[in-house]
Specification:
Blueprint (H helix, E strand, L loop, with lengths): L5 H41 L1
């Protein structure tokens, strides 16, 4: 029976986590990119 390669499994989990985190970061950046235009309009109205 072959020995389980835990280091490989751990590395694969880390890669998956990094990928998911990067996708989330990109989504947040896209959302933040759209919002400031609305926020700046309300900010300038208040002043």
């Amino acid at each position: 029976m072959a020995k389980t390669n835990y280091a490989f499994e751990k590395r694969q989990k880390e890669i998956a986590k990094k990928k998911k985190k990067e996708e989330k970061r990109l989504q947040k950046a896209a959302a933040a990119e759209n919002q400031p235009s609305d926020d700046t309009a309300t900010t300038t109205d208040d002043t």
